[in-house]
Amino acid sequence: MYLTGQGVPQNKTKAAKWFQKAADQGHAIAQLTLGIMYDTGQGVPQNKTKAAEWFQKAADQGHAIAQLTLGAMYDTGQGVPQNKTKAAEWFQKAADQGNAIAQLNLGVMYDTGLGVPQNKTKAAEWFQKAASQGHAKAQFQLGFMYHTGQGVPKNDTKAAEWFQKAADQGNAIAQLNLGVMYDAGLGVPQNKTKAVAWLQKAADQGDKNALKALRILSR
C-alpha cells in the first residue's frame, strides 16, 4: 500500500522497509519485490548485487518470475558475474513452470548454443510453448524456423500462420516477413496489395528492410 499510495501517502522508502521485514521471514513475493526495488533504485539505493541476492532467495523458493529475472541477470552479468550456463538453468526452471518469456529465452539459447549445447529442435519446442501462449516474438521465431526448416520440417504455410499471429500483435519483423511472403506467394496466395500493406506497417515502425522492399515494389 505504501508502494502504490493506496490508503496511505505513497512512500517507497517505507514500502521497502516493510517488504524487508517480510522478506527476512522468507516471504517469496516480498523477496522478489525487494529485489525489483534494489534493481531499479526505488525506496532504496540502487544496488544490482543486492537485487540479485533477493531474486536468488525468491527463485530458490520456486518463484517463476524471480527465476526468470535471476536468469536475465546471469545472462547479462548484472549484479552477478555473467554466466550463460546459469542463465539457461534459471530460464529452464521458470520455463518449466510455464513462464512464456523464459520459454522464449531458453529457445533463443538453444537456437544459438549459448549456455546450452546448440539444439534447433529443442529451440523450436520452446518457441512453440511460448508462441502458444501468445508471445509475439516467439511466434515470429517459430515462423522463421518453419520458413527455414530449422528444428522443424520446412513449411511455409505454417511459417506464414505464425508470422501472421506475431504481425497482428504489431511485431515489425513479422510484418516484414509476412509482407515478403505475400509478395512471393510463399505459404499464402500471392497478393501484392497485402504485401504492401504489411510492409507499410513494418516501415511505419522504422523497419529499414521494409522501406527498401516498398521502394522495390513501387518501381
UniProtKB/TrEMBL annotation:
<dbReference type="InterPro" id="IPR011990">
    <property type="entry name" value="TPR-like_helical_dom_sf"/>
</dbReference>
<protein>
    <submittedName>
        <fullName>Sel1 domain-containing protein</fullName>
    </submittedName>
</protein>
<dbReference type="InterPro" id="IPR006597">
    <property type="entry name" value="Sel1-like"/>
</dbReference>
<dbReference type="Pfam" id="PF08238">
    <property type="entry name" value="Sel1"/>
</dbReference>
<dbReference type="InterPro" id="IPR050767">
    <property type="entry name" value="Sel1_AlgK"/>
</dbReference>
